[in-house]
């Protein structure tokens, strides 16, 4: 009998085209998502070598990093951003690659668009020149980020040269408390294993807490696998997955869908499958979390205090902590829920789906953004935006004093007009709190959409559960 | 791609862990459609003040290290985004070898596509090499990739591991697309089998 295999092993095995003597596999790639920042040099390479795109029908392009999130009827003002988007448009036309233009409702952040369009499906291998491609693993796909040289390699050959990764299982049992979200779970996981903890591994997320999450929550978890160092995160496809996929634009239809589901059901890890590393957490132990430093592993619960570098024995580590405290303008022992914010950003490929916006709106409804705080909501796609408007979420946010924007990467990474000014402090639903990530000198505190909404209302980092409790008592 | 065989040069010590790709090259400089020209923004936030003046205490601004070709750092170098602009910026500055206890996967992989050699050595060895590097411009370190050794200024040799295929491509300066295309018949067979066995498998059409 064949040895029991993991979800990763099965998807990997189904895509090995050929093997080199040293074990390097030629891995077939089912979907290649392309955006404007990491593709120009790849298309240029094809042109120089006289190579075509092997499978335009397995490729989908969209601009997201550079796009303005307001005044979309006007040309992009920043010349270099405009050039990058124009270059993508020229390349997709020249190579016959399907492209979602800025004028389409389907445009949005590539990692929101792929699943939303049914272009990303269970059991697929999916790549994109973007580390947050791990998001699509929520469907039970093997999805990972690649560099521009590999973008060119996939465009030319529809394959990648890869060594198999190691298997890690992150099992989250039990149940989540009120006010605790998928984002809090993932921040807890990163705090536990560290930003290098997943290096060389693909993480499979399992357990009752993961099973109980909707697809948006699973995408939040898999999205930040890269912040734990893992190449990819995966969740075994189940009824939640199939219900999500059914009827989407590029998903199989009718009998084809049933045949696809029959295969997708076989992908779950076998009983007795071996993992190189297993990490277990309990949902009941997880509280609303927030980051205090400039690495995604610098996580504390919202009722915690900023750590003390003097408690570190390794001098290099102590110096690193002090550098972070200086950059973040925090001091050892400070309560994190005392820290005022200037900006609140709800959006990004981590947390810009309809479910995220609903969760934030529930906290915001009937309240107002604190004076002096700038708060933005940036839906992940034009379709998310429209669906949110059909539910009246835009009114809730606008009435509360939030800005309601068009779809794009926005303030996650400071490549477009939405960025922090030096010294500004932001409660952000994005994925990276690196120095300068949201703009030079900007200070980022990562948190969930309800926690970001609470920060907007309170004018400081605060415990969303207090606001939720006030609301319950009023009812 | 430029081949990498041996390199003798100045090494710059950067005793920091988790040097992320936003630190190596901030997002706002990713708007280029070229591979070259990013060297002047390498480590922009560490290297320059917000007003654009050089920070004299940053290692690459010190006279001894301005022409460094080797960088020595601490754990998890290159974590964060998949941007190949990070190795492009290092290469454009003149860095052809990075030594650290370990690297983030995507960055590690991207280095090899650009003729940069990332070497994993234990933390204590990295710290010893940093002490060598602290001696400045007279303390040249040699990397011998064919023999897989780092040679310290005093002549001591330190062996390092590298996968055979990665070493081969780097020493020969080979681009791997050409190599993969030699396997095109296997790719054709895979695609044919897919259309037979998984005929439900959908493709993406161009109508948006």
From TrEMBL, chain A:
<keyword id="KW-0479">Metal-binding</keyword>
<dbReference type="InterPro" id="IPR001030">
    <property type="entry name" value="Acoase/IPM_deHydtase_lsu_aba"/>
</dbReference>
<dbReference type="InterPro" id="IPR033941">
    <property type="entry name" value="IPMI_cat"/>
</dbReference>
<feature type="binding site">
    <location>
        <position position="409"/>
    </location>
    <ligand>
        <name>[4Fe-4S] cluster</name>
    </ligand>
</feature>
<keyword id="KW-0100">Branched-chain amino acid biosynthesis</keyword>
<dbReference type="InterPro" id="IPR015931">
    <property type="entry name" value="Acnase/IPM_dHydase_lsu_aba_1/3"/>
</dbReference>
<keyword id="KW-0432">Leucine biosynthesis</keyword>
<dbReference type="Pfam" id="PF00330">
    <property type="entry name" value="Aconitase"/>
</dbReference>
<dbReference type="GO" id="GO:0003861">
    <property type="term" value="F:3-isopropylmalate dehydratase activity"/>
</dbReference>
<keyword id="KW-0028">Amino-acid biosynthesis</keyword>
<keyword id="KW-0004">4Fe-4S</keyword>
<keyword id="KW-0408">Iron</keyword>
<feature type="binding site">
    <location>
        <position position="349"/>
    </location>
    <ligand>
        <name>[4Fe-4S] cluster</name>
    </ligand>
</feature>
<dbReference type="InterPro" id="IPR004430">
    <property type="entry name" value="3-IsopropMal_deHydase_lsu"/>
</dbReference>
<comment type="similarity">
    <text>Belongs to the aconitase/IPM isomerase family. LeuC type 1 subfamily.</text>
</comment>
<keyword id="KW-0456">Lyase</keyword>
<protein>
    <recommendedName>
        <fullName>3-isopropylmalate dehydratase large subunit</fullName>
        <ecNumber>4.2.1.33</ecNumber>
    </recommendedName>
</protein>
<comment type="pathway">
    <text>Amino-acid biosynthesis; L-leucine biosynthesis; L-leucine from 3-methyl-2-oxobutanoate: step 2/4.</text>
</comment>
<dbReference type="GO" id="GO:0046872">
    <property type="term" value="F:metal ion binding"/>
</dbReference>
<keyword id="KW-0411">Iron-sulfur</keyword>
<dbReference type="GO" id="GO:0051539">
    <property type="term" value="F:4 iron, 4 sulfur cluster binding"/>
</dbReference>
<comment type="function">
    <text>Catalyzes the isomerization between 2-isopropylmalate and 3-isopropylmalate, via the formation of 2-isopropylmaleate.</text>
</comment>
From TrEMBL, chain B:
<dbReference type="GO" id="GO:0009316">
    <property type="term" value="C:3-isopropylmalate dehydratase complex"/>
</dbReference>
<keyword id="KW-0028">Amino-acid biosynthesis</keyword>
<comment type="similarity">
    <text>Belongs to the LeuD family. LeuD type 1 subfamily.</text>
</comment>
<keyword id="KW-0432">Leucine biosynthesis</keyword>
<feature type="domain" description="Aconitase A/isopropylmalate dehydratase small subunit swivel">
    <location>
        <begin position="1"/>
        <end position="123"/>
    </location>
</feature>
<keyword id="KW-0100">Branched-chain amino acid biosynthesis</keyword>
<dbReference type="InterPro" id="IPR004431">
    <property type="entry name" value="3-IsopropMal_deHydase_ssu"/>
</dbReference>
<dbReference type="InterPro" id="IPR015928">
    <property type="entry name" value="Aconitase/3IPM_dehydase_swvl"/>
</dbReference>
<keyword id="KW-0456">Lyase</keyword>
<dbReference type="Pfam" id="PF00694">
    <property type="entry name" value="Aconitase_C"/>
</dbReference>
<comment type="subunit">
    <text>Heterodimer of LeuC and LeuD.</text>
</comment>
<dbReference type="InterPro" id="IPR000573">
    <property type="entry name" value="AconitaseA/IPMdHydase_ssu_swvl"/>
</dbReference>
<dbReference type="InterPro" id="IPR033940">
    <property type="entry name" value="IPMI_Swivel"/>
</dbReference>
<dbReference type="GO" id="GO:0003861">
    <property type="term" value="F:3-isopropylmalate dehydratase activity"/>
</dbReference>
<dbReference type="GO" id="GO:0009098">
    <property type="term" value="P:L-leucine biosynthetic process"/>
</dbReference>
<comment type="function">
    <text>Catalyzes the isomerization between 2-isopropylmalate and 3-isopropylmalate, via the formation of 2-isopropylmaleate.</text>
</comment>
<protein>
    <recommendedName>
        <fullName>3-isopropylmalate dehydratase small subunit</fullName>
        <ecNumber>4.2.1.33</ecNumber>
    </recommendedName>
</protein>
<dbReference type="InterPro" id="IPR050075">
    <property type="entry name" value="LeuD"/>
</dbReference>
<comment type="pathway">
    <text>Amino-acid biosynthesis; L-leucine biosynthesis; L-leucine from 3-methyl-2-oxobutanoate: step 2/4.</text>
</comment>
